[in-house]
Amino acid sequence: MEFPLILGLSAALVPCLVLLIRNPLLALFATIIYTFILPVVGRETMVPFQFGVITELLLLLTWIGALVNPKAADWQASANDLVLLTTIWFVISVLQIFNPAGASVMGWLSEIRTTALTMVLTVPLACALIRKEKHADIFLYLTIGWAVIAAVNGIKQLYIGLFPGEEAFLMANTKTHLIRGVLRVFSFYTDAAMFGASMAQVALISWVLALGPFTKWKRIMLFLISALLFYAMMISGTRGAFFVFAGGVAGLFLTKNFRLLLIGLFGLVLLFSFLKFTNIGQGNYQVRRLRTAVNPTEDASFLVRMNTQMMLRDYLADKPFGGGLGTIGNNGKEHNPGTFLAGLEPDSYWVKVWAMYGITGLVVWFCLMCYILGKCCRIVWRTEDPKLKIKLVALVSATIGVFIASYGNEVINRTPASILAFISLAIIYNSRKWDTGTKQQKEVEHAI
Known about the structure:
Structural class: mainly alpha
Oligomer: single chain
Radius of gyration: 22 Å
Order of helices and strands: HHHHHHHHEEHHHHHHHHHHH
Distance between the termini: 58 Å
Number of strands: 2
Strand order of the largest sheet: 1-2
Largest sheet: 2 strands, antiparallel
Helix content: 55-70%
Low-confidence stretches: none
Strand content: under 5%
């Protein structure tokens, strides 16, 4: 029975591979879809296979398609500082294999996939393949559409029940996903924290787009979607996801609508005050858990995180390049068991970078990200086409939010949030060519 099954799957797979190689942009979009459903594949099939590797394989397939189909890619668009800085970070990550701390090579190999490889595979591709504004529109449709599907599945988990694979996952993770008998919803994602952060990321995109110069029904639909995704974030019980919305402040400023900025800031102050200074809704688990985000000193997990960071400070005092990739977190437990870093939970991606790359790497990574996000904000600020501008504001707001929220959780290094953030950066860089007639578009043409 196994041979006919393999033969049948191969017969179906070959045409798909040919189609994707001939259409690299389609392959890139297929990768985005896969990152949304990646955990489901392994969870429901129960097959002992590292399905995350398929993400890299799809990206490599996209690279092959882009290289063998020169008309499908504009490689000149990849000749920018975004790709350069991405490559520099990848080289730094490769050199970590020689870290004098002597971490496991297998741990380095497993960790570099999320810290640098996904970024260096995605950014140049997105710059070369997303050549038109309509390509960016498809990206937005896919992102919002799959986020809505994930949100609906999360609500299903809470009110109807779990699929067999989800049930098995919950039984294996009751300490983190079943708090006092209340489910922390995780939907398609690897865990509730990733689900909450991703819902906040796309909720912010939808909310900003709803402020744009679109038809009334589109704006209403986007507002409703943003509300749905915000609710999905709430039922995840993930407090760190709340800080994704900090990116909305930058977005409102970039709209140059300062009346809207004041209204948005007022709304954030009201929400903060509601959580900080009242007990309204305290009987609701989701509200109660979110409230701890603005009262961190009363939260036991926050105190544990602060203690971890103090221990790391002492441990890394004489290690300017850190302990090496794959030494902390899950990879640390698996590939460097018994070591000091393997016994710590980083929780924060910023802290994880500090532990693995040392203060030197943390400063480089932080400055690199701040430069890229600052450059993107400059591009958006100078964009004149109102419809294009609001799309870019939505993308840069969500990416800034993901960067900020990564201080509280690992977000920007995990799919789908990472893939969405990297492609968003590439779209913003390419957008200068779509804002026809503006000064910055002419500058790009002159440079070419």
